[in-house]
Amino acid sequence: PVRPADEAARLEGLLRLLEWGDIPLVEFAQERIASFPDREAAARAVEARGLANLRGNGSLVQNLLGCVKDPGAGRALLPFLLRCIESGDPQVRRMALLEYAQSAPEPDLAFLAGFVADPWHPVSQSALAGLVHHPGPAAAAALRAVLPSTEGFVRAAALSALGRLGDPASVPLLRGEMEAARAGGAAAFPVFIGAAQGLARLGDAGGLDALREEAMRRSLDRAPIPLDSPREDWDGPEAILGMAGDGPFRGRLLRQAAEGERAAAAAAVRLLREYPASPEVLGGFLAALERPEWEPILEALDALRAAGSPDALPRALAALRSPETDRRYAAALALGRFRDRSTAKDLGERLAVEPDPSVARKICDALGLVADPSSAPALVAFLRRETAPTPDRALLAFEARQNLRGPLAAAAAGDLARLVEGKDTPPAIRFHAARALGQAPAGEGPRRALEGLLREGDPGLRAAAADALGDLGDLGARDALAQAYAREPEETVAGALRDAILRLDLGSPVGR
Q: CA-to-CA distance for 58 and 348, rounded, in angstroms?
């Protein structure tokens, strides 16, 4: 790679990464272009490259759209976004709609609503998501205007979205839609539920009654919400009832927390957190805590913490010492969520003796989230002991390395550098120590240790050193990387060296 002579050359290099780079390099380039000091120059370059490839290279256009990350860029790139929305490539159109809705300073809501009836479902969903990004009467009026052109599941989703927009003027329309769908039988059931959801979100008693009737018919083993999605994406009768604090439905959630299938019980506990704290709700949390499966135990510990219970932390630490694997696993996850630095010592001590690999991995994650520098020796010690060349043990070392970041990487830099330089240290440990050292603050010590690894006979160690030097971001390493690139016989390692040089050259303004 040729070192850029000025900021124009750096920008051109970042744009080229969007054309041929792998996923990490593409994401690196998108972040740097989005924060480029000369915002107007970056916008012009993105637009020119996008328009030149709009007809023939949809993947590149999508990568370019990923550079639009805030209203400042949206204002400068508005003509480009509009051209992309007109594209014949539905993936480009879908992505451009979302960027337009989220980044354009004053999006045309009627224009956005016009895509709700698009025949390709992802485009329709993107248009709805874009409208929901701008709640209020204007977005609701725009959506009501296009409703006659929708049908089936799209119509159901649009009716539910009307409730998210928060405009009481939608209530009469939603009531009419719900009654018409009720008379339409099974075929109209999705529209019925969509209208009921919209009404319930607007606080209408009829919508709440309809959703409650449907929810009460479902099995206790059906999860009321997806545990792996954020709250803003929760949908369905149970989710809306819970978020509305529906009293009659609370009893069902309490039963589900105690008697439902493990995932359903965990989801019920999370939804119970939407209700005001009360003896009954706290009792539901405690009932879930006594179950043998980790999912409800985790949610119960998290719920107790959110409710301000002084017992939450002591119960989590007691579970971390439990003879039951599921209970220790849940405790490690919960303590990571708590991010309480007072737990660092307990987590580090448990990591040293934990026999179960899955629990050990979660303890490593918890230490990374707690981010107390005093935990660095525990993670380094754990990484050092993982010498067995089995997939499970390698994965544990990977977890330790991944969590040696930020203040932990800074605290561990000296120990990691010694592991990297240790000729008698097993190669697997040197590999993971090198990658972890790349997360430390830039400095001569980490740089020198990694540069020394570039001359090792093991190609895996040379590649690890290259990747770590790219992460470290120390321009002082460029000459060593360039010399290693010139003599490197292995194609894979040469690629890692090239990518590291590119990240150093293109990562910060020229001359800095």
A: 48
